[in-house]
Specification:
11 helices; 2 domains; Jelly Rolls; about 280 residues; Arc Repressor Mutant, subunit A; 7-stranded mixed sheet; alpha+beta
Length: about 280
């Protein structure tokens, strides 16, 4: 299977806001640390790497949004979001285990029992501070957000969701395919391989995958490989050509084309830029 090289991981600005979540029609990616607080109502269920992850009311979740993710079900009525640019997140010098986990695509989630009494007020204040034109409120907000992420890393509780309330009933048939891609994307994969994981005919599997996740099997595979390549470039000293192989790309030239299209710069320049920002975990 030859994934298209059209995946683009968009950068985002430092921002925060609140509202009612909307179930997403397709998995997507953006280049930041995304932080969610479910303030009211029920829970949200995200799809990460083939497994559903539930964020209950009062729960806080943080994840590297360059990894394909999709909100597939929600009974929450009010959620707070904060987006921290990738370079800012790396510059915090968070503990190595926390950074490695996030860059591996594992969301950090705390249940409502680990919520802080100040969470709702803080998330609201951060949104106001980040919208303020003055640098000092934004600096204060960033310091407080960093501290909340550090504390979140002490109380994470990321477990697969037990159910999929409100989700598309066809999602259960797609999950085995997504899980198979997440587990085997580093290997050569065909549509037939992915379809077999769900015991479906390849033609029907492709149609169902696109219907439920609003993307092709090939594009989803490319998203997983690109996220892994970025992780390897940032956390290892592997030569770029070896990164291409380790992330599952069939050829170095295809990897360079896909990575440059997604990140807006070649992999070696990406490593120089972000490697100089990152400091050792404290």
């Amino acid at each position: 299977m030859d994934p298209q090289n059209s995946v683009r991981i968009e950068p985002t600005e430092l921002t925060g806001w609140a509202g009612e979540p909307v179930v997403m029609g397709t998995a997507h990616q953006h280049d930041d640390l995304e932080i969610n607080l479910v303030a009211e109502g029920g829970s949200m269920i995200y799809l990460f790497g083939g497994a559903p992850v539930e964020v209950e009311v009062g729960g806080v979740a943080a994840f590297w949004a360059a990894v394909p993710h999709q909100l597939v079900a929600s009974t929450a009525t009010r959620v707070h979001w904060v987006h921290v640019p990738f370079a800012t997140f790396l510059g915090w010098g968070l503990p190595e285990s926390l950074v490695s986990g996030l860059l591996s695509g594992r969301p950090v989630v705390s249940g409502g029992a680990a919520a802080l009494d100040t969470d709702v007020g803080n998330f609201s204040q951060w949104a106001r501070d980040l919208a303020d034109g003055r640098p000092e409120p934004r600096r204060i907000a960033l310091l407080e957000i960093e501290a909340r992420i550090r504390r979140l890393g002490l109380h994470e509780q990321a477990e697969p969701a037990a159910h999929h309330t409100g989700a598309d009933p066809l999602l259960g048939r797609v999950l085995p395919m997504v899980a198979h891609i997440a587990e085997h994307f580093r290997e050569p994969l065909t549509v037939a391989d992915v379809a077999q994981a769900a015991r479906l005919h390849p033609t029907y599997a492709m149609s169902l995958f696109r219907k439920v996740l609003r993307t092709t099997i090939g594009d989803y595979l490319a998203q997983c490989r690109l996220a892994e390549a970025r992780r390897l470039i940032l956390t290892t000293d592997l030569p770029v050509n070896d990164v291409a192989t380790a992330a599952g790309f069939g050829s170095v030239s295809r990897f360079y084309a896909a990575f440059t299209a997604a990140a807006g710069q070649p992999p070696a320049r990406f490593r120089r830029e972000y490697g100089s920002i990152r400091s050792p975990g404290r």
